[in-house]
């Protein structure tokens, strides 16, 4: 049975539904710090869990006979930069608790890292799998620390930890909260609702992006991969698209010709975006577990505008 933390979040809400489709409703325990009236709560087991509560975390793992933990509960980059101390407490405190439960109950373990784990002196185009990681944001410090801690739990305690460095994720099921790449999600909504959007990220700012269905598939594919093939573990570069705001606008105009994009740059999120890569190299994920995204900017845009 799989325990998912942050199950009501942007990734969690889609991951839980896909896992229940693949493995059966009762094989996925969804948890989050709050309860909501939604299909994640109604379609299978749900429990309130604050990942800072180590005792409850462990007792839920025991009660539900958990053999896999997918730890998604965290503050994203912009929110973490606004509350750095809280971000450390939740992002690292939650991760340590999750890893300890995995060690204690001998479960498999997944948690995402991010392109945010790279910093200003990391090579910016086709960023290698193994390279300099000196992020300048609290979120990035959390992600690099998390990668090292997960590898440590594998090396030291034999916990089967695996992770991916996610790019900006685009989805229409649950809106992201507090990210930097979220401008791209908001642009699709702005296009659909008002044929216009004002971007807080400057034109020409390239970042890696991926459609949520490809992200969910990557998690399942990595967790089912033959561990003897894995040279890396925490965490694999994965991406599908490298784009800047004008690229999204152009793709949207194929469907909404008079879409207007304007700019009101937020210096804080612009600085975060500029410290991240423009495009990352995903060769290791392709070679070690067959990572292969299906959506490009055009097919993602077509699907997003149809579905929202
Ligand atoms: C964020 N969407 O913007 C997340 C992600 C790569 C970006 O980590 O913080």
Automatic annotation (TrEMBL):
Protein source organism: Salinibacillus kushneri
Single GO biological process annotation from the record: L-threonine catabolic process
Family membership noted in the UniProt record: Belongs to the NAD(P)-dependent epimerase/dehydratase family.
Gene3D superfamilies referenced in this protein's UniProt entry, alphabetically: NAD(P)-binding Rossmann-like Domain
Pfam family, one: Epimerase
Ranges for domain NAD-dependent epimerase/dehydratase: 2-228
Protein name: Nucleoside-diphosphate-sugar epimerase
InterPro entries, per the entry: Epimerase_deHydtase, NAD(P)-bd_dom_sf, NAD(P)_epim/dehydratase
GO molecular function: L-threonine 3-dehydrogenase activity
């Amino acid at each position: 049975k799989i325990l998912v933390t942050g199950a009501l979040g942007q990734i969690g809400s889609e991951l839980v539904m896909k896992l229940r489709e693949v493995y059966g409703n009762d094989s996925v325990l969804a948890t989050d710090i709050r309860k909501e009236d939604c299909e994640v709560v109604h379609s299978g087991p749900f429990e309130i869990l604050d990942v800072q509560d180590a005792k409850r975390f462990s007792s839920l793992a025991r009660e539900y006979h958990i053999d896999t933990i997918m730890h998604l509960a965290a503050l994203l980059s912009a929110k973490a930069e606004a509350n750095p101390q809280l971000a450390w407490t939740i992002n690292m405190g939650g991760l340590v608790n999750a890893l300890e439960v995995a060690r204690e109950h001998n479960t498999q373990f997944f948690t995402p890292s991010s392109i945010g784990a790279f910093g200003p002196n990391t090579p910016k185009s086709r960023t290698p799998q193994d390279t300099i990681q000196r992020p300048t944001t609290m979120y990035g410090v959390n992600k690099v620390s998390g990668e090292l801690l997960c590898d440590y739990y594998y090396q030291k305690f034999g916990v089967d930890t695996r992770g991916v460095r996610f790019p900006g994720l685009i989805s229409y099921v649950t809106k992201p909260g507090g990210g930097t790449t979220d401008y791209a999600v908001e642009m699709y909504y702005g296009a659909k609702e008002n044929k216009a959007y004002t971007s807080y990220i400057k034109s020409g700012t390239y970042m890696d992006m991926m459609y949520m269905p490809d992200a969910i598939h990557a998690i399942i594919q990595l967790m089912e991969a033959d561990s003897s093939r894995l040279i890396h573990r925490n965490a694999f570069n994965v991406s599908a698209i490298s784009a800047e705001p004008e690229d999204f606008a152009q793709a949207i105009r194929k469907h909404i010709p008079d879409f207007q994009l304007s700019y009101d740059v937020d210096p804080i999120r612009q600085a975060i975006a500029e410290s991240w890569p423009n495009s990352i190299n995903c060769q290791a994920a392709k070679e070690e577990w067959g990572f292969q995204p299906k959506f490009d900017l055009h097919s993602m845009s077509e699907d997003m505008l149809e579905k929202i």
